[in-house]
Amino acid sequence: MYIDIAKEKFNKLKKEYKSRDILVLGIESSCDETSIAVVRNGREILSNVIATQIEIHARFGGVVPEVASRNHLLAIDSVLDEALSLAGVTLDDIDAIAVTYGAGLVGALMVGVSYAKALAFATGLPLIAVNHIKGHISANYLTHKDLEPPFVALIVSGGHTALVKVNNYVKNTLLGSTIDDAVGECYDKVAKVLGLGYPGGIAIDKHASSGTNNLPFIKHEIMPKTFDFSFSGVKTAIVNYVHKLNQNGEPVPVDDICASMQEQVVEELVRKSISACKKYHEKKLVVGGGVSANSRLRERLLAEGQKNKIQVYFPEMKLTGDNGAMIASEGYFQLISGESLADMDLTAEPNINLKWVRREQKL
Ligand code: KG4
Ligand code: ZN
Fold first, then answer.
1. 147, 237, 267, 272: which is deepest, by most CB within 10 A?
2. Within this chain, do residues 121 and 167 fall inside the same structural domain, yes or no?
3. Ligand 1 first shell, C-beta below 6 A
4. How many Cβ atoms sit within 10 Å of the Cβ of residue 246?
């Protein structure tokens, strides 16, 4: 039986990891990046191959799920070959396989999950199911070699916005999350209406630097008494504003819209992140997800962090987006923390969201 062989290897690893290097293969296919990486001891990237489909989806103005799945299938074999060869290893050197099983697009996730299961079955290697959102936090363990929990984490991606208290490598508490759009989704939708293409985050970030924050899209603090977020209001306000200008044949002040949106959205994220650190007496704030690449978010969090004596951590730029290395890192920490192994019945869970953490009290 596969699981018996995998368990035996897993139990051996639990004894050995302190005395020898452990190599984890990380597989990520939740959205529009097919990525496989080899990571040593959860901290050191030996290879991190990312085949992005951004150009394929850009012409549709967003990710087309069926197209994404097909392209993952086309790419995954060569991504694995390249990841192993760049790391200078073969499958025989790998100790465990970690794979994103949620959240994400079901068809896209299925490609990575099926591939990982086939590899695990063929090799007898332990299979570890990784939550993509936790992976974004772990990108920081790769960037900051001494970073250890506990800390507060702000996750800002295309699919999620959340504040989490990370108690140890595997236990977390959800403090708050978006009740509607994720912050990255808001960036992408506003970029679309402004004709800035997909994905929109980088484009808005760039235009914002030439604009002025002179359009009050967020007029009051949003859900001020909680750690939850809401971004659909600001998105709708901007979309309506642009449509109205277009209908009246008036010029659209793209740079000012970008600067206003960015400044106001970033302030929401900064305010809640800093108050979460204060409330839980945490001196470390860790940021993860695609939007952690945002220049203004970095600037403002670092400034507020310094003011409040909170050390703020960001992943290095190349690890802000989706990648296999963060999945391998997260998988490693699950492995050494004795989390249970996945079996051949592992399946994609597109809506896993933040079920893995318990919701805690209000601000
Ligand atoms: O984490 P990620 O690669 O994928 C998901 O897990 O969703 O995040 C992608 C999101 C997109 O919405 C993209 O527009 C946004 O990250 N993003 C940015 C920036 N770079 C990427 N948002 C704001 N500013 C940026 N510089
Ligand atoms: Zn992501």
1. 272
2. no
3. 31, 157-159, 184, 187-188, 199-202, 205, 289-291, 293-294, 321-322
4. 12
Contact between 211 and 255 under an 8 Å Cβ cutoff? The reply is yes
User: Number of structural domains, the chain?
Assistant: 2
Domain CATH for 85 = 3.30.420.40
**156, part of any domain:** yes
Specify if 61 maps to a domain: yes
Cα separation, 271 vs 301, in Å, equals: 9
pLDDT digits (tens, 9 = 90+) for 77-130: 999 999 999 999 999 999 999 999 999 999 999 999 999 999 999 999 999 999
Report the nearest-CA residue for atom 13 of ligand 1: 201
Per-residue tokens: 154: 């702000």
pLDDT at 352: 85
Whether 88 and 202 map to the same domain: the answer is no
pLDDT category at 215 given cuts 50, 70, 90 is very high
The answer to whether residue 206 is domain-embedded is yes
Alpha helices by DSSP H, the chain: 2-16, 54-58, 65-87, 106-123, 132-143, 183-193, 201-208, 232-247, 254-279, 295-307, 324-336
Residue position matching structure tokens 């951004």? 54
